[in-house]
Amino acid sequence: MTNHKLTGNKGEIIATNYLQDKGYAIIENNWRYKHLEVDIIASNNNRLHFVEVKTRTNTKFGLPEDSISQLKMNHLKKAAEEYLYQHAEWLKIQFDVIAITLKKDTVVEIFVIEDVFF
User: Fold this and answer.
1) Fewer beta carbons within 10 Å, N or C terminal of the chain?
2) What is the CB-side half-sphere exposure of residue 115 using CA atoms within 13 A?
3) Per residue in 83-118, pLDDT tens?
4) Cβ neighbourhood burial of 71 (10 Å; 0-12, 13-18, 19+)
């Protein structure tokens, strides 16, 4: 597995633990539909959260949250639409971003952007 992939996997584990510590119930990790993927699907207070996780080991090329393109957000939205088609019981939804900066294996920062509009 490449370093990039390992970093991403570490970030998703950290984000999952972070959400659980905040009282979220994790419903899915790495949920896929065709070529689309949602990193984390979680619920909290009767709201379904579609979470994109971005992790970087340094900020030389910018912050993790800066690397989320409009195309990626469009893919997240399309994946969420399919998930909701399959799970129509959810009436309230939200899109969130969790940006994680690591130094070696230590978390330097977890930055959460809630209710992202795109």
Assistant:
1) N
2) 3
3) 999 999 999 999 999 999 999 888 899 999 999 975
4) exposed
**Whole-model pTM?**
0.93
- Which CATH number does 3-113 carry? 3.40.1350.10
- Give the tokens for residue 1: 């597995």
- Residue matched to tokens 């939205």: 77
- Burial-class residue 42 by CB neighbours within 10 Å (0-12, 13-18, 19+): buried
CA distance 118 to 103: 30
Tokens of 7: 């970093």
- Region of 24 (left: φ > 0; alpha: ψ -120 to 50; beta: rest) is beta
